[in-house]
Design a protein that fits this description.
Blueprint lengths: L10 E6 L6 E6 L4 E5 L6 E5 L6 E6 L6 E6 L3 E6 L8 E4 L6 E4 L6 E5 L5 E7 L2 E8 L6 E9 L4 E8 L1
Antiparallel strand pairs: 1-2, 2-3, 3-4, 5-6, 6-7, 7-8, 9-10, 10-11, 11-12, 13-14
């Protein structure tokens, strides 16, 4: 087991690259998204300052080998190509701090967001661009978690919403 000081303020999230398990991504309250190669710690392989507030969500696609999404208290979701982490290939503002991002288990073009003060969102990726497909905010609580509920027999896109 390895440990290192990844961020100057609280770390909020860490995520492995499923296809290259020696790569780890982290986000913190210092507004930084960082990439790490566990074979060469403690130096980050990249640091992004694109988010203007704490990075709270990171999700690497298991299906599309180069897609990585990040979310932040700044209310933005960024879609990255992990071969070039200088600028995101697409971004969308969801008008609520992003707390969770979850890829669909079999359809790599769909993504869920739990957006704290603005409910839940279903996003799609069309021609490399993030698009809003659905939004639910008919509750009075914070949206902190979300997951897909895949009904194999019906091939539907259903999701489970965690309202706290």
């Amino acid at each position: 087991m390895e440990s290192w000081n990844a961020h100057s303020f609280e770390s909020w999230i860490a995520a492995f690259n499923y296809l290259q398990p020696h790569l780890v991504y982290s986000g913190g309250d210092d507004c930084r998204l960082k990439g790490w190669d566990t074979r060469n710690l403690p130096s980050a392989i990249f640091t992004s300052k694109r988010h203007s507030m704490g990075v709270t969500a990171i999700s690497k696609s298991k299906i599309n080998e180069h897609y990585l999404v990040t979310g932040s208290y700044d209310e933005n979701v960024f879609l990255w190509d992990d071969r070039s982490m200088k600028i995101p290939i697409s971004e969308i503002s969801l008008n609520g701090g992003i707390w969770r991002l979850k890829w669909h288990p079999t359809n790599h073009n769909y993504l869920l967001s739990a957006s704290m003060h603005n409910g839940f969102h279903v996003l799609s990726i069309e021609d490399g661009n993030l698009k809003l497909k659905a939004h639910y905010n008919k509750h009075e609580s914070l949206a902190y978690g979300v997951d897909w509920c895949f009904k194999e027999e019906e091939r539907e896109l259903d999701c489970l919403l965690f309202i706290l």
